[in-house]
Amino acid sequence: MSKNSWTAVAALSFPLLAFASSHREAPNIARMPTVDGTDFYMFDSYEAGRTGYVTILANYVPLQDSYGGPNYFALDPNAIYEIHIDNNGDAVEDLTFRFQFTNTLGNNNAGIALPIGPTGSAQNVAVPLKNVGPVSAASTANLNFFETYTVTVIAGPSQTGTGTPVTNTATGSSTFTKPLDYVGQKTFGTDAGYAAYAGQFVYTISIPNCTQTGRVFVGQRKEGFSVNLGEVFDLVDFVPIEGDNDPVYGNGHPFPGGITQSAANNILAGKNITTLALELPAACLKGAGNGVIGGWTTASMRQARILNPGATFAKPEVDGGAWTQVSRLGSPLVNELVIGLPDKDHFNASAPANDTQFATYVTNPSLPALLNALFLAPVNATLGTTLTNLAPNNFPRNDLVAAFLTGFKGVNQLAAVTPSEMLRLNTAVAVTPAASQSPLGVAAGDLAGFPNGRRPGDDVVDLALRVVMGALCYPLPIGTNGAPANLGLCAPTNAPVGNAAFTDGAPVNALDFDQTFPYLKTPLPGSPIGAM
Amino acid sequence: MRKLINTWRIMAAGLVGAGALAACHDDVVTVPPAPTASATQIPFSVFAQQVYSNAANSTPVAVNSLNFDFDVNDDPTAFDGLIM
Fold first, then answer.
1. Which of A87, A133, A327, B43 has its CA 20 to 30 A from that of A406?
2. How many C-beta atoms surround the C-beta of residue A92 within 10 A?
3. Residue among B48, B56, B79 whose CB faces A323 most closely
4. Beta partners for A153?
């Protein structure tokens, strides 16, 4: 398709699917935000001095408005949050890091109370708030709510493996603290005040069966995912092709009327998220494999939940029975773009080893066909062309099988190849410093980026759009010295629009983030209004 | 039909009893087997108590092929034994 032929598309709207990485992506999980995994990152640490470490970030509790008091966004104490690592390619986890949370009130779990009433007859009355005065790195005496957690490393399958607790190297304790969410600047002072407060909950940890230490942090962060979410849902109320010569997102053929990159297009810029962050020695993750690791996060709840008709803080419910997985996330956008609506929660409840049940969604994806059905006739009518199909025509879509299920040989494919959905990282690939990273990762010749793992600054929305529409059928700059090379999975003739610079116009870049663990930035404050 | 339901109740009650012997249901004593698919209506109260008593690391019980008799819909105290 020529540049001119694309001009007509500018007048059309593209009803793509949901493009929040995994925010509220399935009907059932949308009812349970505290266990809704939203984004999963796994990359070789590029913080100075941390060569040889892998950083893993699992985000939960989507679309947090920073002003969401008085209870803000605690995690579920009756759930488990897990990060799984497969290092031999059998699609079964070899290591699992299991987080479990406990909530307690101040005043020895009775809640801070104030004497109310005349002197001599005052009654102690519990306050309704999670803090009763300023909080800082130096003093947390005014806190009335505490979240603590443990991290257990399970060797072998998570259901049957042996668990050993992670401990704080400084204290030997296996209990860690999650900072209170960023209530606002009156409570915490400036952003720097909150950063100092939260920063003290970055722990150096001893990891079972690992001679090196790692780090852990759990807490609220500024949402790092960048997407033009509202307009995408509104039948994509923009033209999703780069409209100028943006040096990163453009392809040298600016599309008249196409969207252009603007931070204003990222509607999530005003949101916070809750991050479970680990920094782990790569040597302790690789096992006996080839240095490529597969990772994914899950959340599970007990199968039986009995609501307490006399709910209290300590017992709003009772939970029992088998851990039952309700959320799963490896590579971004799979459950959004690939899995059909009837199976989205089934996917969330499934394990990678059983992913062949979803294979048809990958080999015969519906999204490109939907786009074709909706827009082929209008395009041809407008342009007077005789295109027969906008969607790629290579079936089975082996390009998507590689992208979603197997990884790319020589880049991020594990020692054994078991088709399964997970995020795959080659820990041997040298990191790219933040200033040099490309948001388009491997597709732009930056081999340390998505889909070789995923870094905060990787623009997975644009990449997913391009890949689904056939970008892998065209040469990529992954040959010697960045020379164009075709992966051999399909040909340009298979993908009429596979070389279009699809984009949602919401840019993201590594420099948007911190360059130190846990990388995601200090959250937005709940007040004052102008600071949100 | 009633006989079948009663049989299921007895079986499930036995399993619940075994689970209750463990002071904490995290402590695995025995893993009650998952109920087999049945065309019979299963009392939800008994089923729920069995599921509640299953070990944390057991396999969740599939429910797609089970037919429930929601026998405690009008009884808010049905699970007080678990809550208290």
1. A327
2. 17
3. B56
4. A97, A164
Predicted pLDDT of residue A258: 85
d(CA A22, CA A83): 16
Spatial contact of B76 and B40, defined as CB atoms under 8 Å apart: no
Residues of chain A with C-beta less than 8 angstroms from the C-beta of B25: 320-321
Average the pLDDT over A333-352 and give the result: 92
3-state secondary structure of B7: helix
Q: What is the pTM of this model?
A: 0.89
**With an 8 Å Cβ cutoff, is A230 touching chain B?**
no
User: In angstroms, what separates the C-alpha of A13 from chain B's closest C-alpha?
Assistant: 39
Q: Of the ranges A87-96, A337-346, A379-388, which one carries the lowest mean pLDDT score?
A: A379-388
Q: What is the ipTM of this complex?
A: 0.80
> Using an 8 Å Cβ cutoff, are B62 and A346 in contact?
no
Q: Which DSSP string do the residues of A329-388 spell out, in sequence order?
A: ESSTTHHHHTS-GGGHHHHHT--GGGGGGGHHHHHS-HHHHHHHHHHHHHHHHHHT----
Write the CB contacts of A439 (distance below 8 Å, at least 6 apart in sequence): A248, A249, A449, A457, A458, A459, A462, A507, A508, A509, A510
How far does the CA of residue B82 sit from the closest CA of chain A (Å)?
7
Taking CB atoms and an 8 Å limit, are A303 and B25 in contact across chains? Answer: no
Restricting to B residues 26-45, those with a Cβ less than 8 Å away from any Cβ of A are none
> Band of the pLDDT at B34, cuts 50, 70, 90?
low
Q: Does B82 contact A318 at a Cβ distance shorter than 8 Å?
A: yes
In the structure encoding, which two tokens stand for residue A393, read together? Answer: 């025509």
Reduce the DSSP state of residue A516 to 3 states and report it. Answer: coil
- Least confident range of A131-140, A355-364, A507-516, B7-16: B7-16
Q: Domain map of chain A by residue range?
A: 3-115+125-512
CA dist A400 and A448 (Å) reads 20
Residues of chain A contacting residue B51, judged by C-beta atoms under 8 Å apart? 303-304, 320-322
Looking at the complex, report in whole angstroms how far the Cα of residue B7 sits from the nearest Cα belonging to chain A.
Answer: 22
**Residue A270 confidence (pLDDT) above 90:** yes
Helix/strand/coil (H/E/C) assignment for every residue in A403-436: HHHHCCCCCCCCCCCCCCCCEEEECCCCCCCHHH
| Residues 6+ positions from A342 with CB-CB distance below 8 Å | none
Q: What is the pLDDT of residues A237-248, one digit of tens each?
A: 777 889 999 999
* Structure tokens belonging to residue A301: 């709840």
One-letter amino acid identity for A167?
T
* Predicted local distance difference test score (pLDDT) of residue B24: 38
The mean pLDDT value for A237-265 works out to: 90
Q: What is the pLDDT of residues A78-121, one digit of tens each?
A: 999 999 999 999 999 999 999 999 999 999 999 999 999 999 99
Tokens 């001679």: give the residue: A211
In this structure, the strands spanning A95-105 and A79-86 are: antiparallel
Q: Nearest Cβ partner of B51 from A304, A308, A323?
A: A304
Instruction: Say what the pLDDT of residue A212 is.
Output: 98
Task: Considering only residues B20 and A139, tell me which one the structure prediction assigns the higher pLDDT.
Answer: A139
